[in-house]
Amino acid sequence: MIGTLLVSVVAAIGLNLFPRYDGIVIELLGEQTLDPVVHASGNTLRVAFNQPVYREETRSLPIWLDGLSVDSSGFTAEFSSLVTSADWALNGDSTAMIVFARAGEEILLPPVSWQAPPPAPDTTLWSDSLVFAALERGEGSPWLADFDCIVVDPGHGGRDPGAVGANGSQEKDRTLEISLMVRDLLRIRLPELRIVLTRTSDEYVSLGARTRMANRNRADLFVSIHCNAAENRSAGGFETYFLSRARTDDARAVQMLENNVLELDDVSTVSEDPLSFLLADMAQSIFQNQSSYLAGAIQSNFTQLFPGRRSRGVKRAGFYVLRGAYMPAVLVEVGFISNPEEEQLLKSLDFRFKAAQAIVESIVEYAEREN
After folding, report:
1. Nearest one of 290, 304, 289 to 359, comparing CA atoms
2. Whole-angstrom Cα distance, residue 149 to residue 221?
3. How many domains, in total, are found in the chain?
4. Most C-beta atoms within 10 A of its C-beta, which of 52, 303, 336, 365?
5. What was the pLDDT predicted at 214?
């Protein structure tokens, strides 16, 4: 079902279709820099370029498309009523563009016939192509069959202090202290698991390197620990996020705050690799239920251990540090370091220990549910 580029024309753009169970991906590959002008009206999407677009003629279009035409200056897609939204992105050098049209409801078809048991996977090395194949089928990453590794991510570190409290407390210190406690408590509660920290000292680790570490270790969970901040010094409470589009102004503000560190890496929030963009978007869709379950468990346990504090609930936002994780992932904001009262709480060993307990108890509940 994957389209291929059959023609090669100087200064031309090839258009490929990648139908999926939850929508369709339109890939455009150029021989020079693309400069798209995108216009959407209803279910019609027009993308204009300064180059012609070519595609292989096919007998029929997938159910997500009612029409598709190409011409000397771009292409026009008429999406079916099954499609409810569309996003697009360019790669790092702007020679490739991906449009992802999402369906309101997934369409999962049963197998046509019994094909015998599948061969045992080779787990010695999980390449991007194997992950892509699993996610494209609507399955999880291949290594998730065995719940045996968790990556805990202390937010910020090194030259990135994170948020700074009114009395000088730095987020990077509090997140590391809590994360080390989470690791130690997990080793007691779940001794059979391998616990990996993205950092164990005051060192700088880029956002991309954190999720690459989780993927390299074939983690079954990725938990990123942070302290919140707001211009309003009275803002307080705890909240937990999973990866999706931010739906509230507060969520967008927190997303912007945590993604600001990208400036230190001199990278864009748009993936430079179209395959990585696809993998991240697939993982976001497939693991959303598991991630939201863990986020809810964390909020519930925080509420039990801190009955006098405000639960700000489970939220969703597009955190860069979660986007590249090919496993269920959450980001926990344990408190507002910008709130003088909560800044003092974060300095308290008792508070940090209880926060670690809440996170660990939630992971234990999640592990029991998965097993």
Report:
1. 304
2. 7
3. 2
4. 336
5. 87
356 has which bridge partners?
none
Q: Edge-to-edge strand order for the sheet containing 74-79?
A: 37-41, 44-48, 74-79, 65-71
End-to-end Cα spacing for the chain: 35
**Backbone phi, then psi, for 96, in 5-degree steps?**
-140, 145
Mean pLDDT of the chain: 79
Q: Are 142 and 126 in contact (CB under 8 A)?
A: yes
> Among 361, 332, 371, which Cα is nearest to 188's?
361
Six token digits for residue 80:
């079916």
pLDDT value, residue 68: 93
Lookup result for tokens 């468990």 = 297
**Residues 143, 259 share a domain:** yes
User: What pLDDT score does 30 carry?
Assistant: 86
Running DSSP on this structure, what letter comes out for residue 114? -
Regarding whether 207 and 248 lie in a shared domain, the answer is yes
Question: What is the rounded CA–CA span in Å between residue 102 and residue 134?
Answer: 19
Question: What pTM was computed for the model?
Answer: 0.58
Which amino acid is located at 325 in the chain? A
Residue 230 and residue 326: Cα distance in Å, rounded? Answer: 30
Name residue, tokens 């390299």.
Answer: 216
Helix (H, G, I), strand (E, B) or coil at 257: helix
Amino acid 210: pLDDT: 87
Residues of the chain with confidence (pLDDT) below 50: 1-10, 110-132, 135, 140-143, 245-249, 251-259, 261-262, 266-275, 277
Residue 120 resides in a domain: no
Number of H helices, E strands in the chain: 10, 15
Q: Phi/psi at 161 (nearest 5 deg)?
A: -75, -15
The neighbouring-strand residues paired with 311 are: 238
Are 185 and 284 part of one and the same domain? yes
| Residues 257 and 151 both lie in one domain | yes
